Amino acid sequence: MVLSRSEAIGLLAAITSLAGCRLPSDTRPASRAAHPGTVQLSAAYRDFQASCEQGSADACVDLGRAGIQYGGLPTGVPWLVRACDLEPKACVALGDALIGRRANASDPQLAALAYRRACEAEHSGACYELAVLHYLGLGVEVDDPLAARLHHTACDRGVPEGCAYLVWLYDRGFGVEASSATSAYYREVACDRGYHDMCDGREPSEGFTAEANAEANAEPDPDPDPEQTAPVVPEAPRTKPKREVRIAPTTASPAED
Predict the structure, then answer these.
(1) Among 44, 139, 152, 236, which residue has the fewest nearby CB atoms (within 10 Å)?
(2) What is the mean pLDDT of the chain?
(3) Where are the domains of the chain?
(4) Are 90 and 57 in contact (CB under 8 A)?
(5) Domains 1-28+37-121 and 143-257 are alike in CATH topology
(6) What is the spatial distance between Cα 16 and Cα 35, in angstroms, rounded to a whole number?
(7) Would you say 29 and 68 are in contact if contact means Cβ atoms under 8 Å apart?
(8) What are the angstrom distances between the C-alpha of 164 and each of 55, 177, 180?
(9) Could you tell me if 65 and 40 are in contact, meaning their C-beta atoms sit under 8 angstroms apart?
(10) pTM of the entire predicted model
(11) pLDDT number for residue 242
């Protein structure tokens, strides 16, 4: 799941064409003058533009978010593109902007590429977001085993929402072998890490056996032997409503690492 240099360049080129966006230059976007957020945008440029143009990805992210808030996607996205180009982990902010936290998706395919680039740079929140997209089939193909591996990665790196999703996956056998013991284990982990919705009805810690612990911590097999491991096939085709779960987007920030 490595994003090649050519894919990264293609991502940046495709994103800059969205909604008339263009890469930042020495001049500020002309649209700012007619927008009611002109004062706030001017303050953002004063605070962040110089640092961004000198190579600070964090400043570019701050400027991009301000641009989106006060001027819309065409104003803010180019700065997020620059941040993504400077620091791959900052691509998570670009993904968030492009997909609107899944509530109002504008371009989930490009968002998935942005999350993928950040995930490859070991941004745990981006791995979680990409896992959700592969689980829902939003902007990418439905891929339950990949979604499970990404949620394992996110959970192992401290994202409680990733652990909560694993509860759902192990309950239903989506991308993993169904296991009530492993589901209960990740319910405990998610609760302990602050996902309080998973605290109701969880099993006590002493109820976990060493076998369940080992099963939960085992890496999913990326290429199982079909002769030894039968694929988990649901009894009936799944529909999007069945896939939806009430787990909020992670609050992990682009600067978390």
Answers:
(1) 236
(2) 75
(3) 1-28+37-121, 143-257
(4) yes
(5) yes
(6) 21
(7) no
(8) 37, 16, 14
(9) no
(10) 0.70
(11) 42
Pick the CATH number of 143-257 from 2.60.40, 2.20.130, 1.25.40, 3.20.20: 1.25.40
> Which tens digits make up the pLDDT trace of 67-84?
888 888 888 999 999 999
7 vs 83, which has greater pLDDT? 83
Q: Where in the chain does DSSP place strands (E)? A: none
- The span from the CA of 112 to the CA of 102, in Å, is 11
- 246's tokens: 């009430």
DSSP letters, the chain, are: -PPPHHHHHHHHHHHHTGGG-----SSPPGGGGGSTTHHHHHHHIIIIIHHHHTT-HHHHHHHHHHHHHHH-HHHHHHHHHHHHHH-GGGHHHHHHHHHGGGTS-S-HHHHHHHHHHHHHTT-HHHHHHHHHHHHHTSSS---HHHHHHHHHHHHHTT-HHHHHHHHHHHHHTSSS---HHHHHHHHHHHHHTT-GGGSTTPPPGGG--HHHHHHHHSPP-SS--TTTS-----SS---HHHH----PPP---TT--
Tokens of 161: 């929402």
Kindly state the tokens that stand for 7. 């894919």
Note the pLDDT tens digit of each residue in 73-117: 888 999 999 999 999 999 999 999 988 754 454 788 999 999 999
Report, as an integer, the average pLDDT of 184-200: 92
Segment 200-229, tens digit of pLDDT: 765 544 333 334 444 445 554 545 443 333
Q: Which residues fall within 8 angstroms of residue 159, CB to CB, at 6 or more apart?
A: 124, 125, 127, 128, 250, 252
